[in-house]
Structure formats: structure tokens, C-alpha cells
Description:
The N and C termini lie far apart (about 40 Å). A hairpin with a 4-residue loop joins strand 6 and strand 7. The longest helix is centred in the middle third of the chain and has 11 residues. About 20% of the residues lie in helices and about 35% in strands. It is built from three helices and eight strands; from the N terminus they run αβββββαββαβ. The chain has about 140 residues and is an alpha+beta fold. The N terminus is likely disordered. Strands 1, 2, 3, 4, 5, 6, 7 and 8 form an eight-stranded mixed sheet that branches. It is globular, with a radius of gyration of 16 Å.
Amino acid sequence: SKESEMQHGKRKLVLLPDTYAVCRLDKDAPAPEWGTGGPFFSMTRTAAELSVVCLEAQVPGGVRKAGGWRILMVEGPLDLSLTGFLASLTGPLARERVSVFAQSTFDTDFILVQRDQLEKTIQVLEVEGYHVEAASV
């Protein structure tokens, strides 16, 4: 049944420590050394830009960035054929006007939310049946 399918799809989310920044570099910029390290970082190059998500404390001055992000990691691994899972997280948050920046890897999904919306985010997701816990470091 659809209901048991939805229950089966509910997951635990792990709140990663630290605060992150999303940075924009020129499309030809080399991958920056400062953009690596910590429990999470991501670099994506397109024809227009190089985006770097990394620990905010590591970003040097003068770099274009949006800071203040916290990361919730879906406890994985997720099956790559799973459909609608990210929407089951982001849909309820969108209804509550929580802006998210999503990142996916082979194993799982990550949602970044602004620090000042973290408490609201956790409340919304727990109402939806998700369990949120802090990362064990």
C-alpha cells in the first residue's frame, strides 16, 4: 500500500556539526584547497561557474559566498532508483517557507538550511515522521 511504502521511506536525518558556506568561483577557477576538509564538502563545475560548499570558517575573504548554512544528512545508503524521496523532505519545508539547498551523492541526500531556520526545519520534519539527531563526533 502507498501508506506502508511511505512509512518504509521515512528515514533518520543526522545534523552535521559546524556552519557551511556556498561559494561561487569563476568557471575556470582551479578547485581551491580551502574548499576541502571537514566532514562534508562539495564542488560542482558547470559551464558558468564553480560552486563550492565547505566549512564557512575556511572561506577566505573576498570570495563570493552565502554563509550560515547547516547540513542535515539523510541516513543512507539510498537506492538510486528511489523516487520522490527528496521531495518528501523539501515539499513540507517549502510549504512552511523554509528555503533549502539540496545536494546528492551516490549514497544519500543532504539538505542545507539557514542556521536561523534550523529549529523550524527540525520541527517540520519530525511532524512528517523523520527523526533528527546530532552527528556523533
